[in-house]
Design goal:
451 residues, alpha+beta, Multidrug-efflux Transporter Regulator, Chain: A, Domain 2, 4 domains, seven-stranded mixed beta sheet, 16 strands
Length: 451
């Protein structure tokens, strides 16, 4: 499974076929870019501290990375495709291994803060994760056009700069959008005569959603995500919450496309915390509705035991012999019980049991009715048990539902939409929540996203 792309490249290898705009060109002549095994070996040196790896890709190509032999603070990723050539990209060494994993799947290259190209289609940054299938959702970019090296304005190759990696200073590079990059690009193009035709060299993409007047700043991104701008800035400063890479830097300000902002907001809603909020108690928003009910139940039960039974009431000192005081004690004692839910119920075992039971039900009905149904009934007792888990541990129920949908798809060939509709119908019939919209909201976040 490829990772979501969250990494900032710092340079282009001179022998890349697909230069990244605004990044310097770096001499990669010491890198054996035609031999993935040799790339890996160059990073696997005795003594540790340097790294290297290579893997084949399903498209017939390969990807490899290595710590640079001359600059151990930097590392190279080389992605080769039999039809589309190679990307040779320089990263900081702390990012290079993770960036490499992002190239292991369909992506041949990344642009505009994680937009990626598979050789035919541009896709938005991978953010929304389908837990059932254990893959990121690939969402194509409408009306995207590829900008090739042949489309780029030409500069003066005599003014271009080719960096030796030993001299590359990441703190003093030319700013993004610098007109001097045209000269650097012209130098690369002049040196690229033995490589691919410039029309086959991808530089960037353009799309309506990436137009300058459509991009969002920090305040707008925060608004889409339902958080404050200060919270977003704190996330960025601390590297938290997987804030997406900006699509552009304009006047020193990060800017995002609206679809990227909306995907990030969807990812936050689908997170453990987001799913838990769908079952939050009205009076205790940090507790699920099931735990809050359990707390109330034990509070009442202990109040009866401690106050309504004469034999117990006599045990309290005179200054505590009021019903309100005893209820306060009962409330505290009840929390001990409610907070011990995982001791009262074996939640991991319960989740596995629900998963097995629902899948058995689906398989049994499939044998009886065939595989063309739009929904399958689920046993009342099984549904009520799933309902209990949803109310008491919604974040754990999230994983159970994803496993059910994924296994039904893989093992039984039941489409996720059919399994999802079956679960919705079952909870609508047998669920105990008075507000059926709560189930809909929960399942909207837990079931696979639209592809």
């Amino acid at each position: 499974m490829a990772l979501s792309y969250q990494y900032v490249a710092v340079g282009n290898g001179l022998r890349t076929d697909h230069p990244i705009p605004d990044l310097p060109f770096v001499d990669d002549s010491h890198l054996p870019i035609h031999d993935p095994g040799a790339i890996e070996a160059s990073g696997r040196k005795p003594g540790g501290g340097t790294w290297g790896r290579t893997d084949p890709c399903k498209d017939g190509g390969w990807v490899a990375f290595t710590t640079d032999a001359l600059r151990p603070d930097l590392g190279w990723v080389v992605r080769w495709h039999p039809e589309h050539g190679r990307s040779v990209v320089l990263y900081r060494d702390e990012d290079v291994a993770s960036a490499y994993m992002s190239y292991e799947g369909q992506a041949l290259l990344f642009r505009a803060g994680g937009y990626w190209w598979d050789g035919a289609t541009w896709y938005r940054p991978s953010q929304v994760f389908d837990q059932a299938r254990e893959v990121y959702v690939n969402r194509p970019v409408p009306a995207a056009l590829t900008i090739s090296a042949a489309d780029q304005p030409q500069g003066d190759p005599g003014k271009g700069v080719l960096w030796a990696i030993a001299d590359l200073d990441l703190d003093t590079l030319r700013p993004a959008g610098s007109r001097h990059w045209r000269d650097d690009f012209a130098l690369w193009a002049a040196r690229h005569s033995d490589g691919r035709h410039l029309a086959g060299c991808v530089v960037h993409l353009t799309a309506p959603e990436l137009a300058a007047d459509q991009l969002l700043g920090v305040a707008e991104l925060a608004e889409v995500a339902g958080i404050g701008a200060s919270t977003l800035r704190a996330y960025q400063a601390r590297g938290e919450s997987e804030v997406p890479l900006p699509q552009a830097i304009v006047g020193g300000r990060s800017m995002w496309s609206r679809p990227v902002a909306e995907d990030w907001a969807e990812t936050r809603r689908r997170s453990r915390d987001g799913v838990a909020r769908t079952m939050a108690d009205r009076d205790h928003d940090n507790l699920s509705v099931g735990v809050a009910r359990l707390w109330d139940y034990f509070t009442n039960a202990f109040s009866i035991d401690l106050w309504d039974r004469d034999s117990n009431r006599k045990r309290f000192a005179l200054r505590w012999r009021t019903k309100a005081a005893v209820r306060e004690v009962a409330h505290d004692v009840a929390w001990t019980a409610a907070a011990s839910l995982d001791r009262i119920v074996p939640l991991n075992d319960l989740g596995a049991t629900i998963r097995a039971a629902v899948l058995f039900e689906l398989a049994d009905w499939q044998r009886t009715e065939g595989n063309e149904e739009v929904s399958y009934p689920i046993n009342h007792a099984i549904t009520r048990t799933l309902d209990w888990l949803i109310q008491h541990k919604p974040e754990q129920a999230r994983a159970v539902v994803a496993e059910i949908v994924g296994e039904a798809d893989r093992a039984l060939n039941i489409p996720p939409a059919v399994t999802g509709f079956s679960l919705r119908q079952a909870l609508a019939l047998d669920g105990k929540l008075a507000d059926e919209n709560a189930y809909a909201e929960f399942l909207d976040l837990v079931l696979p996203p639209d592809h």
